[in-house]
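Consider this one:
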Amino acid sequence: MKRVMGKYSNWIILALDGAVVLFSWWLAFQLRFDFNLPAGELENMLGTVFVVLVLRLTAFNYFGLYRGLYRYASLADLTSILKAVVYSQVALTGLILFLRHAHFPRSVLVIDPVMTLFLVGFVRFAIRATRDWRYSRVNQEQLPRALIYGAGDLGESVLRDLQRAKKQAFNVVGFLDDDHAKWNHQIHGLPILGGKNLLPGILEDQKIDQVIVAVNHSRGPIIKGLMALCAGGCRGVQFKTVPTLEEHLSQKSGGYSIRKIELSDLLPRKKFSWIWPRLRGSSPARRCWLPARAAL
């Protein structure tokens, strides 16, 4: 069944969009006349519905609404829907006013695009919401409780990967970050609990099993500082880390691999480039990370 749905998913979405366009057109007329549609306006509605359907679906296809993966619907998809609705509405308004002149209710041409934008967007994001809901049904109480240090781009990416994983490995309870402006805010529904000075108390209160360090800079001093805070008798907690954003992109692999702290993570590192000797022609420049002492 899942394979069949995947094969015909675009046709299913096309049919849903067609139904949404028709419903929006009907609803615009009903709202305009307080659900008491006169006979003359019924003729206006039925006489233009085919034009509305063709223009809307053509615009949706032109702006790529049927080339995306709906379970990953995002702001970019909403922007494409907005463009498709606006452009099709300009053509629709001009065509209807040319054909119907003064005998067509102008307010319908305002209500309909708003309803279409809302309902078409709702279909896309409902698909994404059902996917996230299916993954959230995993019983997380039996998983190790984790805390992410670093409420920035890297920490958000790590949390998103963990939440979308088909086989979840951690029950993330929140974030720590030393930026006071982020405290008492949330990322994907999880709170930013405070700074690293609160770590010992949070470990005990939240029964944390693992701390995932997700920072792109000054990783060595940060990790050593966090470990020092737990050296005074904190409950047994494992510290782990992930590749930085630049390291992750250079690896060309999907997802962030959470690993144990290594010696190289505790040393400050410098980035530099060099050119490999030419062997059988030219070679591109190579870039790597080395511990600071090794780079001297």
